[in-house]
Amino acid sequence: MLSNVERALDHMTKLNWVSVQLTLVCVCWPVDPMILVLWQACQLENHVGQYYTLPPAHIQTVFPHGLPARFQLQMKTFNEGCVMVRPPALEVISYLKRADYSKPALRFLFYGVKGSGKTMSLCHTVHYCSTQGWLVVHIPDAHLWVKNCKELLPSSYNGSRFDQPLQATNWLRNFRVTNEQFLSKIQTRHRYVWTKREFTEEGRPLGELVDQGITRVKSSSDVVGAVIKELRLQSGQPGGCFRMAVAVDGLNALWGRSTIKKEDKSPVSIEELTLMHNLRKLVKNDWCGGAIITALSQTGSLYTPKTAYLPHVLLGEEGFDRMDPFVPVTVSNYSEKEFESCYLYYQDRQWLQHPQSRTEEGKKELVFMSNRNPSALERLCAFL
Amino acid sequence: MAAHTTKICLSLGRINGPGFGQYASLNRATYATALSTSNFTGNKGGPDRGGRGAFVRRPRREPGEPRTEKMDSQQDWSAVYPSAASFRPGSVPLPVRMGYPVKGGVPSEKRGNLELIKIPNFLHLTPAAIKKHCEALKRKPPCKACFSLYKCFPVYLLDQMGTAFIPRGNRLTFSFLPSAFCTEWPAGLDSDGDLDKHLPIQIETTDYVSAGPSVRNPAARVVTLRVRLSSLNLDEHAREKMLKLLGDRYCKDTDILTITTDSCPLKQQNTDYAMYLLTVLYHEAWKTEAWESEMTRADRREYIWEDSASQQNVLDTLARMATPVPGEGVGEGVGEGEAPPREVLLARPEVQQYRDSVTRLKNEGESEGATLRYREAVKKLLSL
């Protein structure tokens, strides 16, 4: 590994990359495996503001459903996925590097104003975990599970709860894509009976369980519950072969309100949804051998004020008490250095077509108009 | 008298029986003469009353000469016009004329002149009269009342009185010139501390003075009572109950309870009501009702960390982390790999710091600073 790094460093100097102080964007294209190795090994503080490219193969496996929509559009336009290295993600990654995985799972929460880059930081951390060979349980947006549910079935396992087959099947499919390599290695520890004729024995590979959920749509929510239970039991065990990273975006949906209504028009509480019930069990820190990385989101949330962004406000009393103790990590707008980097990247990709945008005054205007907010800047530049 | 004459004539006519024809004309002449010799008093009683109504009018006196003729030029004018009164032509020895003149004429004289009566006059406020008012105000008063003056007299009076009123905080003290409305400041009450010790209750009232026909002002009934809670004898339970009863009327920074009453029409009634409210609050706070035993965590005024979900979470997490700190007084009953007992865990400094940060976060509301403090506390707790 060390020799690889040395070679990578050597390679880097040959490419004449200028250091961050001169704020030149280090975009590594065409995709160079050396750079990837370098990135894996030394994500240090002095790389703040620099961009790194996600290899296309990784994008398809790690992020079948995780990346923000606008970023996906940008990826399609630029033909590459470049993520900026920012302090919040670096901080969490540093904790993950130093953590003791025999202790209960650590919980991290990204919070910040709208558009400051919480989801991107989460994705960055998830990518790190997956490159380190962890099993990633990524719920891209918990808010999607509490609103606009077309089909709501009463649960066969527990009569008072409701299943959401479509959402569960979708998620299982993406989970299978992300964690292909673990599905054959992990074995079930319990026997699960789905119907009179269908059951999953003990000792069967997890992949079978997942396939069961994808093919038999009716029982998919319960399959999700079973998968979560198995993973919680087995991660961190002395004989266990994996570490688990749980990534939840829009964590405040777990303790908020839902807009789903039953047939008699009465609202469904979060506790009555099987998926959410199991998710709440997942984010408790009563298992070890992994980490729980979460992000708040006001944008998709229901019945929360627009200006709310602090953890206690969005999670509510109950949410805060359940997540306690967690490490809140603030994600703020771009610093000057980061803004420069982003601006140069757009310029480099020929994204800023307007002649005024390439001048100093134009840049100042962009700073003023976007207040260095990443999503605002991205939307502004899309017009230019 | 006329009737009497008529009767005599009738009797004369009857005596002269045989010579009837001769005297007939004489009798008739007697009648006619009798009527005509009487005094003619006009239409007495009116034509429809016939000879019945004899209405006697009071004899009319001629008006005497007006008072102005008898006035001395050195008289005391404030005796003529001691207060605001309308214009009396007979009392004002000035040849005033007012009104629009007839063509070729002059404005009408003061006698019977409605214009002069309609307009306001300041005949009661001549310089001599005002000097008398000022002398009266400067004199030492017989009454003991002490109250605050709000909308004071017209400006010229203030100049005459000088700066006798100097407000000190909510109370007015008087530096020099014992004036008509105040008593001397009691000796021995020199500092605010003395005042609070001996006179803990402050009652604030406002009096209004304005030029107009009526001295009443409905705003003068408002009474504000202020008292420090520390000067009341309250134990823990009583203080909590009192604070719950008071709500907004209590200021935490200054420890002052403010009761404002204006529901009664009179100031005296409002002060009595305010004192009554204070008494009732005090006695109710000391009582413990049966239903107070049903108080839940949500009913409490402030968040208490002890026995909360947060404390439970922390104890569970630390128990599972299970690394006894060297130097901690672990009891003999605890084995090597077991968690230290609860009290030991709670006594750790990082747990104390965590407790403080959570309590402050919940009680004072969330802010960036509070979240950062919480973060530091959690990092120390989880030894990141």
TrEMBL record, chain A:
Pfam families: DAP3
Sorted UniProt keywords: Mitochondrion, Ribonucleoprotein, Ribosomal protein, Transit peptide
Listed GO CC annotations: mitochondrial small ribosomal subunit
Name of the featured protein: Small ribosomal subunit protein mS29
Superkingdom assignment: Eukaryota
Signal peptide: none
The keyword DNA-binding is annotated on this UniProt entry: no
InterPro entries: P-loop_NTPase, Ribosomal_mS29, Ribosomal_mS29_met
GO MF annotation, one: structural constituent of ribosome
Matching PANTHER family: MITOCHONDRIAL 28S RIBOSOMAL PROTEIN S29 (PTHR12810), SMALL RIBOSOMAL SUBUNIT PROTEIN MS29 (PTHR12810:SF0)
Family: Belongs to the mitochondrion-specific ribosomal protein mS29 family.
Main localization of the protein described in the UniProt heading: mitochondrion
Compartment list: Mitochondrion
SUPFAM superfamilies assigned: P-loop containing nucleoside triphosphate hydrolases (SSF52540)
GO biological process, one term: apoptotic process
Automatic annotation (TrEMBL), chain B:
InterPro entries (alphabetical): Ribosomal_mS35_mit, Ribosomal_mS35_mt
Lineage top rank: taxon: Eukaryota
Sequence ranges of Basic and acidic residues compositional bias: 61-73
Domain annotation Small ribosomal subunit protein mS35 mitochondrial conserved: ranges: 200-287
Annotated region described as Disordered, given as residue ranges: 37-76
Gene Ontology MF term list: structural constituent of ribosome
Entry's Gene Ontology cellular component terms: mitochondrial small ribosomal subunit
GO BP annotations listed: mitochondrial translation
PANTHER family assigned to the protein according to its UniProt record, in alphabetical order: MITOCHONDRIAL 28S RIBOSOMAL PROTEIN S28, SMALL RIBOSOMAL SUBUNIT PROTEIN MS35
The protein's name in its UniProt record: Small ribosomal subunit protein mS35 mitochondrial conserved domain-containing protein
